[in-house]
Design brief:
alpha+beta, four-stranded antiparallel beta sheet, Aminopeptidase, three-stranded antiparallel beta sheet, 156 residues
Length: 156
């Protein structure tokens, strides 16, 4: 997994993040975006992720694959739990399992977390990947008037 590197989101040119979030293949899985993702939205997004790092000591990273910005993801505080988030550019969708395995190692073996959750929007037609990762569906949750399937993976 040497091809995967986690760096601070602040090391990434903001326009790359804006372009990722506005990619039509990506944004269809991000129902909380609503009206697209502007430069101002990006600054607010980055600030919210910085607050997570400041408050909890963990948060999402920018993900580089073979040196190129591939997306963002990692662990983030969500309603009292540690949530796994992953947003990759479509050209890197085949890398999801390797990214997840690196984050899982961080969560369970380095940080000692007992379980992590993952939230998928109802419109996400292919939930098979999250189940292949070992997550078990727990039910539905509401976030900002949008419903998500909630999954959990417990520490082995």
């Amino acid at each position: 997994m040497d091809e995967i590197e986690f760096v601070s989101l602040f090391e990434i040119e903001e326009q790359l993040i804006v372009d990722l979030m506005n990619n039509s293949m990506v944004s269809r899985y991000l129902p909380l975006l609503n009206e697209g993702f502007t430069a101002e939205d990006c600054r607010n997004f980055l600030e919210s992720k910085k607050r997570l790092w400041d408050a909890y000591g963990y948060g999402p990273y920018a993900i580089l694959i073979e040196g190129a910005f591939a997306g963002w993801g990692g662990l983030q505080y969500e309603d009292g739990e540690v949530d796994f988030a992953l947003v990759l550019h479509p050209r890197y969708w085949g890398w999801g399992m390797n990214v997840f395995l690196a984050i899982k190692e961080l969560a369970f073996h380095q940080m000692g977390i007992e379980s992590i959750t993952a939230l998928l929007p109802l419109g996400r037609h292919n939930a098979k990947a999250i189940k292949r990762f070992g997550f078990i569906e727990e039910g539905l949750v509401d976030i900002n008037d949008e419903q998500f399937f909630k999954y959990r993976l417990s520490r082995p």
